[in-house]
Amino acid sequence: MSLQIGQQAPDFTLFSSDLKQVNLADFIGKKVIIHFFPMAFTGTCTTQLCTTRDNFGFYKELGAQVLAISVDSPFTLAKYKEDNHYEFPLLSDFNKDVSQAYGAFYDEFVFNLKGVSKRGAFVLDENHQVIYAEVLESAGDLPNFKAIDDIVKSISA
Fold first, then answer.
1. Which residues are known to be catalytic?
2. CB of 124 within 8 A of CB of 67?
């Protein structure tokens, strides 16, 4: 089951596409938007992260940190970030612990691939309580960006 509104978000430390460790606790005092996505270089995942990229200035202006997480390796994520000019960290959950902790995890995905992140979005307040949670069963669906934008704006007012 995925995290629910009102729950404390599990802390994590993951390697970024820059091969640096990123810890959720580093962002205490900041709103955080976490996007889980199944696989780099796929159509819907690229749409999800490019939409986020295109809203990045809006999030930054509101003091929100964006993090994107998949089970891809940091090396794959580095190329993906470079190709698409993402300004936010792409984090590798290669060991699948964080995707499982957030309930954004397929035991089995297409082509019999085992252990892939589900598409999902979470918004955390400054104390990292979950204030928005969305995990999608269909990898072809996109998160509700309007709802994400509205909740980030409402907690920034």
1. 45
2. no
